[in-house]
Amino acid sequence: MGRSARSVINNENDDTKLTAEEREARLAESRKFYGEADQFFKTASSQPRESSSATFEKAGKLFEKAAKAHPGSAIAQDAQFMAAESYFFGDYLTKAEHAYGILQKKYPNSRHNDRAAARQFSIAQYWIDTEKSGGSKVMPVNFVDRRRPWFDIDGHGIRVLDQIRFDDPTGKLADDATMAAGVEHFRQGHWLEADEFFTDLRETFTDSEHLFDAHRLGIRTKLQMYAGPKYSRLVLDEASKLIRQTRQRFPDKLRDSEISEALAKDAAEIDYLQAERLAVRANYRERRGEYGAARQYYETLLANHDQTPFAETARDRLAVVGDLPALPEQRLAFLTKIFPERRRAKPLITSESTSMFR
Question: What ranges do the domains of the chain cover?
Answer without folding.
Answer: 1-91, 256-326
